[in-house]
Design brief:
95 residues, alpha+beta, two-stranded antiparallel ribbon, 3 helices, 2 strands
Length: 95
């Protein structure tokens, strides 16, 4: 968890709120080093931009499939976090 002191104090900084779970790895230097290394790689390899580009390709492909298959309802997302709504095809009668 990364936050400002003000937000921390409002969320969990009082005796009444001290029971709220904050962080499994809080104050763990190894996990902090791993987190910083992860952020450096995300920036160095431009992974956010790559996910946005690949997400566009995937959304385009899914839009094409949506035109061919009535089972695919709405397709939405951002980057590579994509949701696909499936629906019962009207060509299939119930029962």
């Amino acid at each position: 968890m990364v936050t400002s002191r003000e937000i921390h104090d409002k969320a969990v900084g009082t005796l009444e709120r001290c029971y709220v779970h904050q962080s499994t790895f809080g104050r763990n230097r190894l996990s902090m080093a791993a987190g910083l290394a992860t952020l450096r790689i995300i920036e160095r390899d431009r992974l956010v931009e790559h996910a946005a580009r690949m997400g566009g390709v995937l959304l385009d492909g899914l839009a094409e499939l949506q035109q061919r298959h009535e089972l695919i309802g709405e397709v939405r997302g951002r980057g590579l976090m994509i949701g696909i709504e499936l629906r019962a095809p009207s060509s299939r009668s119930p029962g």
